[in-house]
Structures are given as C-alpha cells and as structure tokens.
Amino acid sequence: MKNILRDAYHIDEKIIDYVFKIKRRSAEKIAEIEAIKEYNSLKVLRAFQTVGVEERHFTPSTGYGLADIGREKLAELFAEIFGAEAAIVSPHLASGTHTICTALFGLLRPLDTLLCITGRPYDTLISSLGLDDEHTVGGLAEFAIKYDEVDLKPDFDIDIDAVLDRLYLDKSIKVVHIQRSKGYTARPALTVAQIGRAARAIKERFPDVYIVVDNCYGEFTERQEPTEVGADVILGSLIKNPGAGIAPTGGYIVGTRKAIDRIAARFTTPTTGTEIGSYVGGYRAFFQGIYLSPSTVCTALIGATLFTEVFASLGYSVCPNPSQARSDIAQSITCKSEKELIAFVRAIQKASPIDANAVPFADDQPGYDSKIIMASGSFIQGSTIELSADAPLREPYIAYFQGGLTLESIELALMLAMQDMGLATLL
Fold it and tell me: What is the predicted pLDDT for the residue at 123?
C-alpha cells in the first residue's frame, strides 16, 4: 500500500509512516469498535430473520401503495432493530431535517411547547422551525407552538435538574427534543447512557411527555439505541448511517405505537397514516443498506478515530478527543487558519471516488447563516456516511469530517489533508 500512496498520490513517506504508526497504536480502540460492529451485525441479522424478510418484499409499488408489502416489512424491520413498537421508513422523507420536522409537528399541537434539552439545535432545524424568525412560513409560530431550551452542563451532559425544573414550571411542554450529535458545536455526541438517564428521570415524573431523539450520525455506534433506554421516538436519515451508502434517499422514524400513529397522521393524512405510500424504485436498496450499516459505520468510526489520534498528536483541538467516548461518526478538527480549513476540506474531496477533480469553494447554503465549504464525492448526493466534510467559513475554523465506505479511502483522505496543510514539517 505504501508504494501506491507514494507513487500514485505522491504522499510524503513521513506522512505515510506516521499515519500507520498511529494506527498500530490505536489497535485497542479499533478492536472495541470492531466488537460493537460484530454485535450490531448479528443484532440486525437476527431482526431480518425474526420479521421474515423475503425477496418478494423488494417489489416496487405504484399509485397509493395500498398493501405495499415492501413498505410494511421495512417498517417492521426497523422497529425490530431499534427495539420499538412501530416505524415509518420512507423514501418520501427527503432529509434528516424533514424527518425531524415531520415528527415534531406530528406530536405538537397549538399552545404546546417544544423543549430542546441539548441547547440550540443545528442551523437547518433553527431555520425550518422558525426559531430566529417568527414569520417563517410553516414555522412553529404559525401554529401557536412555543419553543424553549435548556443548555447542556459545562461537562456536556444533560442538565437533568434544570430540565425537570422547567417541566414542573411549564405544563405546556409536550415534547422534549434531544440532539444526539454535535451539529456545528464543539462538544462530543451524547452517549446512549446519557440519553437513558435523562429519559428515565423525565418519564418517572412526566410520563405523558414525548421524548424525541435526533439520532442522526449515531446509529450503530454503540450496542444500544435511544429507544432501548426510554426514548419515545428516534429518527434519522437513510443517507447517513442506516443506509450504508446504498439507500438512495429517505428517512426513518421509530418509536411507540401511540407516537408513530400521531406522526403518521402528519406524514400522510389522518386515517390513512402508514397505510399508503408507494415507491416505484423498489425496496431492495433500503433492506441491503440497513443490513450492511453496522459494518459501514464501523469503517467510518475507525477512520474518525485515526483522524482524532493523528491530529491530536500534532497539537490540534479535536472533538471528541482521544479520551472521550465516541457516540457518533462525526469528528471535528479546529484548524489554525482559514487557509488550513480550506486545504483540509479540499483534501477530502481529492480522496473521494466521485468528482475527485472538483475544487470546493465556500458558498451560501439554504438553512445556514454563514458561508459553508463542503466536500462530498459521494455516490448518493449529500450522503454523509460516505467520505465527506463541511465547515462554516468563520472562526474558530472548525472542520467537520465524517463517513467513508472504505478504510483505504479514509486513510488516503487523512494523508492528503496532512500533506496539503503542510504538516509533514511537524513529523
């Protein structure tokens, strides 16, 4: 491998040797990631067998999609995998943000309050809910739904006491929202154990409040999912972890039967709920994606671990850092300058299988309040289980890296980033 990295990609031998030295040093962490993969792979396989997935469930459907056995079996499978009672799994959920909004607006009613207990949500959700603009068409304010939030504690754990106080004081709170991943913030993802502690504390005192977890980037990074520790609803995007770079589009929502029925009435219409919805492309890719997801997530986690260990060893601020628990596939690295940040993102693009010759530039993006520079040489547009990076072009110049379908491509991306940032001189 060293020869092709040197001869075809012109990587400095010092960089090649350094990355593989760090990889050997990280053997214990890599072994634990692989152990989680083995557990989750069998967990998913057992779910396939338990619900009885058959080849006929790959069949396309048209029109209303009445009695669509593929749609129904896929939902049953996701519910089984995530330890839930019911699910909506659909190619018609166009993005993670669309999926979250569908769930929240399905559960909330006029004069209710949405309480986010992980601080401010990420940019696209802020704009979609109209949190910074009460005149946003379709935002919370148009439906007389209020919003409140509780920040995380200084150690980035959920402030359970503050959350309970807020719930005691405001009886209009009907949905508690938890964002598992970091978004554009410098904190590690919440672990399933942290989410479970908060969920149990809330449910013991306020059993009728819905706990909704944005599970994006977190699926299969641990042995349990939030629905297995008390969350009413979890949701995510199929072009992230659970699609494994194979599912072409879509999102999933799993949870209690009561919650899913309410959300389904918003997703389609009251009375039709989960009984309609066709997909002429067929469901094979969705079944195959969730089946391979634990292995693909494992690869992404090993890659993120290598980025963490290498950049931390060179004096960069990284999150999570080498001593912190990892509960999603995202990795942030604080660059020293705007120039370094741009070089990092462009290196990720150069290491990609698709559009490797494209040169990323910062530009305005829908839902974001600053220019964003993105790298995504993916087979599925916007897929972030595939090798990708993005960063707001603003101080403190934090790059967010995630994904990678093969470890070799991730290692190449790491080496190209080091080279293009001029880090060979530090070795």
Answer: 79
